[in-house]
Amino acid sequence: MSDDASPPPVQRILVAADASPQSQAALAAAVQLAAAVEAAVKGLFVEDEQLLRAAGLPFTAEVRTHSQPPTPLSDRRMERQLRRQAERAEAALQRTAESLDVPHSFQVVTGAVTQELRAAAAEADLLALGKTSTDSSRHRLGSTARALLSECGTSVLVLRSAAPLHQPVLTYFDGSAAGDRALALAARCACRGEGDRLHVLLPARDDDTTARLREGVRTQCRDLDVETNAHILPPSEADQLAALAHPPGGGLVVLPRTWEPLSTASLQQFLYELDRPLLLVQ
Amino acid sequence: MIDALSPDALRQHFAPSDFDFETTDDLPANTQVVGQDRAVDALEFGMNIDGDGHNVFALGPTGTGRRELVQHLLEDEAADDETPPDWCYVNNFDDEREPRALRLPAGRGCDLQEDMEALIEELKTALPAAFESEEYHSRREMIQEEAQQGQEAALEELQDEAREDDIALIRTPQGFAFAPIRDGDVLAPDEVESMPEEEREAVQSKIESYQEELQNILQKVPESQREARDRIEELNEEMAAFAIDDGINTLRQKYSTLEAVLDFLDDVRADLLDNVDVFVQAAQNGGRQGQMPPMLQQGQQGGGQGGDPGGAFWRRYRVNLLVDNCDTDGAPVVYEDNPNYQNLVGQVEQIAQMGALVTDFNLIQPGALHEANGGYLIVEARKLLTQPYAWEGLKRALRNDKIQIESPGQALGLMRTVTLEPEAIPLDVKLVVVGERLLYYLLDAYDPDMERLFKVMADFDDQIDRSDGHEAEYADLIATMIAENDLPPFDSSGVARVMERSVRLVSDTEKLSARIDRIRDLVEEASYWANHNDASTVTDAHVQTAIDEKIRRASRMRERVQESIERDTLYIDTDGAAVGQVNGLAYLEAGGFGFGKPNRITARTRLGKGEIVDIEREAALGGPLHSKGVLILSGFLQGRFAQRYPLSLSASLVFEQSYGGIDGDSASSAELYALLSSLADVPLRQTLAVTGSVNQHGVVQPIGGVNEKIEGFFDVCQARGLTGDQGVLIPAANTDQLMLRRDVVEAAEAGDFHIYPVETVDQGIELLTGAEAGTRDEQGGYPDDTINGRVEARLRTYADRRRQFALTNGQAEEASEEA
């Protein structure tokens, strides 16, 4: 348990914006989260320079369907398309943020998508993005998301679709600094949502440690109007990602990044089985 | 001179002591019909015979209780018959315009209807639940995942392959593109331009080949999507079947012996599975209306909650129980009181919905033929024939042995709008039509179908023989009426008086009236009068009051006539004597009430050519029967008196003060008497009235309305005060019709009024003149002082004068006086 002052709050949330419906969901979730923790949202649209460069080449063509021949790309048209996508994303952010009174901003850059996002994430406290940037199967994890989840130093919220508001929030608390921050975020999200419920999973330890952990939970949640249920993970399931695969409720899952199973097991498989928004807290 | 009838012969008397009961309470009161053997036997024959077309027509005068009797007999008979099956209409899933008929054993129809309703209710929740379940969603998602994953795997493989070849697969806003890369970055345009020609071409051809491969992958997409769809369809059917089969199989077991129901259940199951998309879509839309099959929409825009496609959709699986014989004992006996086309054959109702008329099999309504199927149907002929198309519709069903429900417009081919054509239901019914005689004979004469369809006629009589058995039954019939109408009991005197009235109604001493309705009316009215006088038992006094009051209600005209006679507006003499003048008797009827009235008949005779003028006929006031009567009496006259010399008289006969029409020959004997009196110059007694028709041989023939005529004259005499020598001459043959009022009989008993039964004209003329009629002697002549003699003398005088007149050319003074 940390005996510092209260953990640094999340103040800047970055959202990776593109044209996909998953990104839209990430945007909405980010704004919700911002409202819960009183942060500001920044949307970042990266115009893929690889794409623009490819569009400029003479022999690149867009393959759409099997029946029509590929249509040649034009860089000017590509620019226009990308710009339009950016405008739509910005408008969506504006709508959602204004409805919840959340301060917001939007930026468009051109470059390599993953790099730009990584750089921008370093300036933010939390990054929200969609699992893939296209309409994909549940199983698929996009390359950008994969890269950012594993390398990024910021907390990351990744999802396929928004969690229903009335579902309880789930978190894991082991007393570490990250666990503390995760708990704090989870509690604020829970009291924001209509469900008002927070499920906390505790590791199986000796009784003293468990008592301390419970106390820590109570302290965090004291000032918030949220119903807290603590469950202890049985030893056989502890340290296993699978334990969380079908947890109670259907809402947001908030986990400390430092939790061991996250580094050893396949994140893609975990995300596939979980199929709920996941927030990894640094 | 013949004698008057004994007072005993003037009225039939039923003695209360002849009955073996005190009041009607002592009687069993279970008689429905008396006599009518011919008709009753015909009915029983008609009911029992099985042949095609042996329907029954019960004809007779109205008010003989035919319909109730028929119904009663049929109900008795039908109670032992087999109970007919139930009939239902269900949806024909192959062609909804032609609903199917289902036949089920009696009582199982309502079971099936209820069971289907229950099944529908069950499915309304089970089916949506199946498609909202976790299991369904995850399995469906799994199928879609697999399809998508397959495609993604292929793309990834291609991407990896291309990367090895320094070609990147990039996503574009609307698809994919291949671009050459070096060290992970797409080449810049100038880098490409600076490339050597062949290298550039190599890159281009590589890209093109990858594009082709990509297109091949994309080509598989529709196929894999189709496969996924098929698998989802299979999943849908599997989930639906799982939800449905439980309920359906329970029903299959319950109705395992009924093949038609099993087929129906199979059809229902197949249709539910066919329509499974409706439920899937409804579940996915979460309550918004999905596609609806073209059935009725009952204004429910919301379509129900959750996955329910709306109440209108489920109508297709319901069962329309058309004929429910669950509570029927034996065969049905149905009396259709309003036999119009729809009530007989059934109809398809329609509902107005958004400006159009819509219908489905649930709106098929049964008719009387359906309800009576397997049993008996009773209708009244007049009601049936006055309804347009009802007779034709009924005949068609009988001829074809099946009930086809269609509107008259459809039947006539007039309507072209789309409507239902329900499967015809086989018909097995015995029809009894109750009607007037006239209708039967008209139909028999003009409708060729009558012979084929109504082979049994049950002919009801107006009268019942007065045998011993029948009299006792008649009393019980009265008791039955009293019981059925909840009236106070009659004592034996009351019953006796009713039976006397019954005899009077038919004017026949050997018969009783079969007009049950009139007897019933009398019984009810007598009860009223008894009640009016606070009596608990109805006696002959009350019955008499009822009779008298009824007559009084109708007798305004008769009273006016009597008044005119009394006030000498109409001249009728009831004493003294006059030549060539006699009291004839007329019968008048208005509004069902008949009464008699004396009418002065006069005759004048003179020299002439032998013609007898009927003034009524000349004035076009006499009908043909009247003219015939006059011609007959002149035939008699000529036959008796004109054998040796021509009839040289001219005579005129008239009904004095008669300004309406006269018909019938009942007064022809009176006219003859007047004529004879005028010829013989002998006065006729005005104390007597005469009725009777005469034939060419002078025989007096019976007439109608004899009771009313006698009473009519009696009333006039009584109003003036009976003189003791008044009376009426009636034909002897009418004696067995006498049922006179009691006051007339009392006067006869006191010797103040006399009824004379006359057989010949000679008898009559003797009574009227007091002189002998006379018979021909050996010389062929009549004695001088007889009526006939005097008539003959006068006629000979006329003949001589006429001859003289002709010879002397009109110089009458030169002719000598003849004796």
Reconstruct the topology from this structure.
The complex is a heterodimer of chains A (282) and B (819).
Chain A: E1 12-17, H1 21-37, E2 40-48, H2 49-56, E3 61-62, E4 71-72, H3 75-99, E5 104-111, H4 113-122, E6 126-130, H5 143-151, E7 155-159, E8 169-172, H6 177-192, E9 197-202, H7 207-221, E10 227-232, E11 253-256, H8 260-264, H9 267-274, E12 278-281
Parallel strand pairs in A: 1-2, 1-6, 2-5, 6-7, 8-9, 8-11, 9-10, 11-12
Antiparallel strand pairs in A: 3-4, 7-12
Helix pairs in contact in A: 1-3, 1-6, 2-3, 4-5, 6-7
Chain B: H1 37-48, E1 56-59, H2 66-78, E2 86-90, E3 100-104, H3 108-132, H4 134-164, E4 167-172, E5 175-182, E6 185-186, H5 189-193, H6 197-254, H7 259-274, H8 276-285, H9 311-314, E7 320-323, E8 333-335, H10 341-345, E9 347-348, E10 351-353, E11 356-358, E12 364-365, H11 368-372, E13 376-380, H12 381-385, H13 390-400, E14 402-403, H14 408-411, E15 425-426, E16 430-435, H15 437-446, H16 449-453, E17 456-459, E18 463-465, H17 468-484, H18 492-506, E19 511-513, H19 516-532, H20 540-554, H21 556-566, E20 577-579, E21 581-590, E22 593-607, E23 611-614, H22 615-618, H23 624-641, E24 649-655, H24 668-680, E25 683-685, E26 688-690, E27 693-694, E28 700-701, H25 706-720, E29 726-731, H26 742-749, E30 753-758, H27 761-769, H28 787-807
Parallel strand pairs in B: 1-16, 1-17, 8-13, 13-16, 21-26, 23-24, 26-29, 29-30
Antiparallel strand pairs in B: 2-3, 2-7, 4-5, 5-6, 9-12, 10-11, 14-15, 18-19, 20-25, 21-22, 22-24, 27-28
